[in-house]
């Protein structure tokens, strides 16, 4: 079984489990209770492995997005024919691709600031730390070195590659935020605006 097959199996199991949870939550009528249960039983289940979804097919991302769409419709008690974008915007929920970017960037921030496990952090390198790049303009920025890859299908999905690309796509003002909590808030706002533009 290759990596794609195991991810597809995992996504299928997650989708099945989340929709089962949504069916059970549907019997609760109070909106606040529904929203709390959805966050605890559904959103957390998708978010717990979001960072490994970098570079997966649009089909798998769409299947996961369908969970959030169904959850938003449940919270607002609307039919399937209603437009989903205003509902997601109202709940302030990121779409799945932006959730993946969010998780990657938060983990990268933790790597750069010493709060991530060493085995993860040792794969992330600032451009300024590379000897042969010290005299380039990029050495004064907070960009990361994107490691070269042998195979674009699997190599692009490796954490050092996907995380470095996601980090480098952020504005420099966001990459230099001084602590984790403000970084998370500003990152979510940035991705939210980017997602719903």
Could you characterize what this model shows?
The structure is a single chain. This protein is mainly alpha-helical and 197 residues long. The chain has 2 domains: 91 residues, no CATH class; 97 residues, no CATH class. 61% of the residues lie in helices and 0% in strands. The longest helix has 23 residues. The radius of gyration is 19 Å and the shape is globular. The protein starts with a helix and ends with a helix.
H/E element string? HHHHHHHHHH
Please mark out the parts with pLDDT under 50 across 5 or more consecutive residues, or reply none: none
Number of strands: 0
Which band does the percent of strand residues land in?
A: under 5%
Overall shape: globular
Helix content: 55-70%
Can you give the mean pLDDT? 87
Radius of gyration: 19 Å
Measured distance between first and last alpha carbons: 39 Å
The biggest sheet, with number of strands, parallel, antiparallel or mixed sense and barrel status, is: none
Structural class: mainly alpha
Q: What's the tally of helices?
A: 10
Count of discrete domains: 2
């Amino acid at each position: 079984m290759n990596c794609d097959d195991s991810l597809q199996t995992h996504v299928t199991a997650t989708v099945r489990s989340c929709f089962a949870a949504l069916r059970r939550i549907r019997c609760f009528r109070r909106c606040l209770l529904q929203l709390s249960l959805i966050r605890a039983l559904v959103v957390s289940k998708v978010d717990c492995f979001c960072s490994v979804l970098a570079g997966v097919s649009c089909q798998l991302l769409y299947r996961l997005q369908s969970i959030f769409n169904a959850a938003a419709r449940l919270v607002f008690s609307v039919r399937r024919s209603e437009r989903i974008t205003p509902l997601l915007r109202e709940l302030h929920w990121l779409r799945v691709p932006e959730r993946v970017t969010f998780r990657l960037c938060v983990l990268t921030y933790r790597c750069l600031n010493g709060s991530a496990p060493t085995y993860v952090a040792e794969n992330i390198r600032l451009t300024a730390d590379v000897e042969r790049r010290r005299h380039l303009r990029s050495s004064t920025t907070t960009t990361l070195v994107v490691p070269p890859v042998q195979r674009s299908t699997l190599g692009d999905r490796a954490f050092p590659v996907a995380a470095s690309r996601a980090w480098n796509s952020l504005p420099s003002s966001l990459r230099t935020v001084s602590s984790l909590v403000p970084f998370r808030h500003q990152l979510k706002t940035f991705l939210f605006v980017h997602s719903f533009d």
